[in-house]
Write a structure and sequence with these properties.
The chain is 76% helix and 0% strand. With 188 residues, the protein is an all-alpha fold.
Length: 188
Amino acid sequence: MSQVKDLKGVDNDARSVRSAKSPGRGAKAGERAAEEKEREQADRDAACFARWLEGATLRVIADEQGWMAPSSAMRAIERHRRRTPMLEVETIRLESLTVLRTARGKVLRRLEFPDLTSSALCRLVAAVVAIEARIAAIVGADAPKQTQLTGANAGPIQITSEEEQTMVLRALHQEVGRRLELVDSEIE
């Protein structure tokens, strides 16, 4: 019996040495849990970003996520923006959107003051309408704008080959030469 105890002790010592040398299943489980938590945060941040693009305020996003402060929603949006590579144009568009939404919030808060004159009220309402129109244009809420390219006199654009352009230029040169000869003959 005593030999069995000794063997068990040796095995236990060997196991403890192995676990000290390399991380065991517990460490891998911890890494997996951390990765899962990071994925969940990335998903939550992406959802916050999507709601923000839809026009939800930071307060609304924070309330939907169960956060106390709108700054938590802003941090989630910023984390998503840092995590997701964007084109420079897209970055500028999003920064414009942030500025416009901030301005809209300030104007709307100003509308709550009872001491506004009717002309001030009209200017503030006009500002909100202009801001809303710009936000709609940035997020693509409006119908796409149609742009039509036309040629001379609103006609169709003519596409020519290099050969055709050379022929037209030769004809123009001949006409210029003919007219110069007429001018020279009139002067003499």
